[in-house]
Design a protein that fits this description.
The complex is a heterodimer of chains A (111) and B (114). Chain A contains no helices and nine strands. Chain A is an all-beta fold and 111 residues long.
Chain lengths: 111, 114
């Protein structure tokens, strides 16, 4: 699996957009970008995933660069409940069903 | 209730004892996983299962045993617990191999080995 690089921590003001970057320069053509988050002491929660195109769901938007070497997770209106560790993971959507979690980014949303 | 559950949620045991952590999912998902998470680290895969009676090792399998006689259950056994196995254990499930890789995680079991 391709490795990812994320900043260890970020801060965001409540109500503002949180933009979490991720570098995955060794991503291969059939690998997806997945984002999960883990709120303190809870199990990780799936947020969104994408292959090439930008994606949006009720939780977030995922922007993938054209060369696919980096991506940004956007939480459009961050709330205090969005404070969590966010994991950017690259993996195949096919038979390679193992996700490799790194250390992620601790996002702290401040009032 | 629908979803994925783990039991017990908290467990304290002693070195050398056998411990079994239970995981149950109600979606009939084919794939199930066990991860451990140590303080300050990300999740590491212990074992996974693609279907009933099919299991395989993950990144850190030593000292653990799994079984999957039924699709909905995936117990994890520490045959002789060691202090280094003190950790938070998460079980997860996934519908299938094709398409996206969304895994659903349980609430975790916090295990302390004295």
């Amino acid at each position: 699996d391709a490795k990812t690089t994320q900043p260890p921590s970020m801060d965001c003001a409540e109500g503002r957009a949180a933009n979490l970057p991720c570098n995955h320069s060794t991503i291969s053509g059939n690998e997806y970008v997945y984002w999960y988050r883990q709120i303190h002491s809870q199990g990780p929660q799936y947020i969104i995933h994408g292959l090439k195109n930008n994606e949006t769901n009720e939780m977030a938007s995922l922007i993938i660069t054209e060369d696919r070497k980096s991506s940004t997770l956007i939480l459009p209106h961050a709330t205090l409940r969005d404070t969590a560790v966010y994991y950017c993971i690259v993996g195949s959507g096919g038979s390679n069903y193992k996700l490799t979690f790194g250390k992620g980014t601790l996002l702290t949303v401040n009032p | 209730d629908a979803g994925i559950t783990q039991s017990p949620r908290y467990k304290i045991t002693e070195t050398g004892r056998q411990v079994t952590l239970m995981c149950h999912q109600t979606w009939s998902h084919s794939y199930m996983f066990w991860y451990r998470q140590d303080l300050g680290h990300g999740l590491r895969l212990i074992y996974y299962s693609a279907a009933a009676d099919i299991t395989d090792k993950g990144e850190v399998p030593d000292g653990y045993v799994v079984s999957r006689s039924k699709t909905e259950n995936f117990p994890l056994t520490l045959e002789s617990a060691t202090r280094s196995q003190t950790s938070v254990y998460f079980c997860a499930s996934r519908a299938g191999p094709v398409g996206h890789n969304e895994q659903f995680f349980g609430p975790g079991t916090r295990l302390t080995v004295l």
